[in-house]
Specification:
By secondary structure, this protein is mainly alpha-helical. It has helices at residues 9-20, 27-34, 51-72, 80-83, 91-103, 106-111, 119-147, 152-187, and strands spanning 48-49, 149-150. The chain has a two-stranded parallel sheet. Helix 1 packs antiparallel against helix 2.
Length: 201
């Protein structure tokens, strides 16, 4: 792969994805069309990928996948918040930002999917964002491997972040279902809803 410089993760995503899909004569040519130069957020290809750059590519891939998934569900989202830089790049903090962002559109999803209700809405919503997140992580992994060497530390951080995101989304679903269960129970004459656990609503 030619040694080129790219200005930001977003143009890099497009350039490397083109190489992966065979849409170009060379990685160097595609990267040159993406834009060379720049001082910050620059990666020299064929070098070891650091945590900061890996997160940049990951955030762009996630933003792209989430935007597409929500658009297909009739929900408009703004990925600017997800793309903002943060001083804390630990797996825990990164996963929390991803979970908080992606789960923040449940109300909009419900408004655009009134044909379903109750726990089914929650299940479909969480399935949508989990699928988008998984695809985003897969895309980022393929892109990063096409750029250079991913150290064990960086790969470990990516894997841990993914696991924490999936757990965070599952926990969110449980909380939403419990809240729904409590609402139903409060409307019953005896204060009890059918079933005693969220999973059997």
């Amino acid at each position: 792969m030619d040694v080129e410089r790219v200005q930001n993760g977003q143009t890099l995503v497009a350039a490397i994805r083109g190489v992966i899909q065979g849409k170009g004569t060379s990685a160097g040519q595609l990267l040159r069309t993406a834009g060379a130069g720049g001082r910050e957020d620059v990666l020299q290809l064929s070098s070891t990928i650091d945590t900061g750059y890996a997160q940049k590519v990951l955030k762009n891939s996630l933003a792209e996948r989430l935007d597409k998934a929500f658009a297909e569900a009739g929900v408009e989202i703004d990925t600017k918040q997800l793309l903002e830089n943060s001083l804390d790049t630990s797996p825990e903090a990164t996963a929390k930002r991803i979970v908080d962002f992606s789960t923040g559109f449940l109300a909009s999803f419900k408004n655009n999917n009134k044909g379903i209700e109750g726990t089914e809405q929650i299940d479909k919503f969480t399935a949508l964002i989990k699928d988008a997140v998984k695809k985003g992580f897969d895309d980022a992994g393929a892109i990063l491997k096409g750029i250079g060497e991913i150290s064990g530390e960086v790969q470990g951080g990516i894997d841990q972040t993914f696991e924490l995101v999936m757990k965070g989304i599952d926990d969110f679903a449980k909380q939403e279902k419990q809240a729904l269960f409590d609402q139903v129970a409060a409307k019953q004459p005896n204060g009890k809803a059918k079933g005693t656990q969220v999973g059997v609503i």
